[in-house]
Design brief:
alpha/beta, TIM Barrel, 2 domains, about 325 residues, about 50% helix
Length: about 325
């Protein structure tokens, strides 16, 4: 119930207008968000790199409402890719298709995505397409597959959510083309008819998909993390759940899978101790680094994911 309420609030304009006026909201959000400007995010990435941790950079924003804003968002993403290249930091970039026009016009979104992926080819880097709530999954996967026919799987990847019933079948199909896949549990409020309602089942699905990803990567000759930290291996295991981390490590050890052929991904500001311990063990670790002025929806979804995050926020409210 609490999770559903918070996810509703993440999408409600009235709540956004109210909460973003509170000065302590911005301070609380800074725990999970690198800052409002690209310079802030680059500083965070450089600090992570000194700890042997890579990054994926996300300029926050979603659901653009007109072609002009979608094209502007696309130009900003290209500028980010170019800035990351100039700075020489160990980072790639994550994007949402609704940010570059998917909700406006699919052809517009495809044109914008082509512009972005042409840049990844020029710079020999990588863009990960985030999965959003279920209404966008089919359109996102369709566009991703069409782009894979034009571009290398080394330059574009996708995200899969273990709480959707369909995800195991999606992973089977995606691995046929050697797709780079980030596996997460899922951060939206989905109906029981399409998503597992219980955490136990979401976790079990997550573990089954880990098995798929490890086996599928071996079938695809287990590509390893690129030397510059930009192009990831096929499986990216995105979790802060230590049980899922332990399961993944055991599966790797059992198969003889090289550590550099898998990476763990976590969110900026969450479980820094686990990030650093995995990096010290020799596993590639990548932190999702969000920045920008459109921080409210992202921040509210982080509160929905973990009650501890919500209590942190409320404790500031009453100070």
């Amino acid at each position: 119930m609490l999770r559903s309420i918070l996810i509703y609030l993440s999408q409600a304009n009235w709540a956004r207008q109210l909460i973003t006026r509170w000065g302590f909201s911005r301070r609380a959000a800074s725990r999970f968000i690198a800052g409002e400007e690209l310079d802030d995010a680059i500083r965070v990435i450089k600090a992570l790199n000194t700890k042997n941790i890579n990054a994926t950079l996300d300029h926050l924003g979603e659901h653009t409402s007109n072609p002009e804003k979608a094209r502007q968002a696309t130009s900003e993403i290209i500028e980010i890719l170019e800035r990351v290249d100039r700075e020489g930091v160990r980072s790639n970039v994550s994007i949402k298709l609704t940010q570059i026009g998917l909700a406006v016009d699919e052809n517009l979104c495809a044109d914008n995505l082509n512009r972005i992926l042409n840049t990844t080819i020029e710079l020999n880097t990588f863009v990960r397409i985030d999965i959003e709530d279920s209404q966008w999954v089919d359109k996102t996967l369709k566009l991703f597959r069409s782009m894979q026919e034009r571009y290398s799987s080394e330059n574009v990847g996708i995200v899969i959510q273990s709480y959707l019933y369909r995800s195991e079948d999606d992973v089977t199909n995606l691995l046929e083309s050697g797709s780079r896949i980030r596996l997460c549990k899922g951060a939206y409020d989905e109906p029981e008819k399409i998503a597992y309602p219980k955490k136990f089942d979401v976790d079990a699905s997550f573990d089954r998909i880990v098995e798929q990803l490890v086996s599928g990567s071996i079938t695809n000759h287990a590509p390893t993390l690129s030397e510059d930290g930009k192009i990831p291996p096929i499986p990216a295991i995105a979790t802060h759940d230590e049980k899922r981390v332990i399961f993944t490590k055991q599966r790797i050890e059992k198969s003889g899978y090289p550590k550099q052929a898998i990476e763990f991904q976590m969110l900026y500001g969450i479980r820094r101790d686990l990030q650093e311990s995995l990096a010290a063990e020799g596993y590639p670790v990548r932190v999702y680094v969000p920045y920008g002025r459109e921080w409210y929806p992202y921040f509210t979804r982080r509160l929905a994911e973990r009650p501890a995050n919500l209590w942190f926020f409320l404790s500031n409210f009453f100070r």
